[in-house]
Amino acid sequence: MIAETEFLMGDLNMADDKPTPEVDVTKDWHATQGQQSSAKRLRIYAALAWIVAIGTEIAGIVLLRQHKFDHGNLGLLIGLLVVIAVFAIAGSLMWKAANKHDPASKADAAKFFFQNQLGAIITVIAFLPLIVLIFMDKDMDPKNKKIAGGIGVALAAVATLIGVDFNPPSTEQYTQDMNKCAAEIKASQPTTDCSPEVAEQAKAIAQDSATVADATKSAANPNGLDVVYWIAPENGAKKSATPHVFHICQGVSPLRGKVVNKGSVTSAYSENATRITKQIPMEQKQCGFAAAATPEKTAAPVAG
């Protein structure tokens, strides 16, 4: 039987919930659906740029093998090297931008290294075979060989350095940033410690958490609760494919008969339940919060 605190079906008795003294948004950072989509798009563009770079390298190797550069066409060879550099650098920059939207975790050292340094690795692949063949070509004019080889080495070095990420982002770093950002938001301070990648998400989570806490205040829980309920991701997935709505208790109409997950607002966001219900007054009545939070007024005596 799955623990009630993680995975629920049916109606809920709110009496078992414990009060939350302070809204807590300092959980592990997770990329939003929008950030994942942006990262995916950028990685596709980066891959296409790298394909062009490697394809240009292959074209150069074929022409080299056909002795097209033995006694001329130096401009063409240099042009091919420049094209390789341009597309390799473009791919690296887009890949770095994608990693800022959806970084790897340091917990998996191999994945963290390859994901962050892939631009440099691909650049070496796109340059090294052609440069080696240029210097090994015994039929090419020695002067042209030195010029083309030197330019190739210089371009490869610059492109590789651009491809290296010397300060790669990580989910751990973003978690720390979000903790600082959330603390500043809760303290009503300027969000000076918030990076662009976490600021909006932390702000949205803090605002929604405060709204939920305010809506779930009662005599038993004067500070409210940081507990919400949402439809579980389909087919056992970790995250829903489309954004879902989260609610202040499981007994509300939209969740009846559904497989429901329970957790903090941050947990809901991590599973792509990123939209707070617009029916809070109605849900307060269904969940029993309104009556507890707003005592009924005593009726005035009727004049005889």
Count of the separate structural domains: 2
Uncertain runs? 1-26, 291-304
Strand order of the largest sheet: 1-4-2-3-5
DSSP, total strands: 5
Shape: elongated
* Range of strand content: 5-15%
End-to-end CA span: 61 Å
For the sheet with most strands, the description reads: 5 strands, mixed
What share of the residues lie within helices?
40-55%
What structural class results from the helix and strand content?
Answer: mainly alpha
Overall pLDDT, averaged?
81
Rg from Cα: 29 Å
Order of helices and strands: EHHHHHHEEEHEHH
What's the helix count? 9
Descriptive labels:
304 residues; mainly alpha; 2 domains; five-stranded mixed sheet; 9 helices; disordered N terminus; disordered C terminus
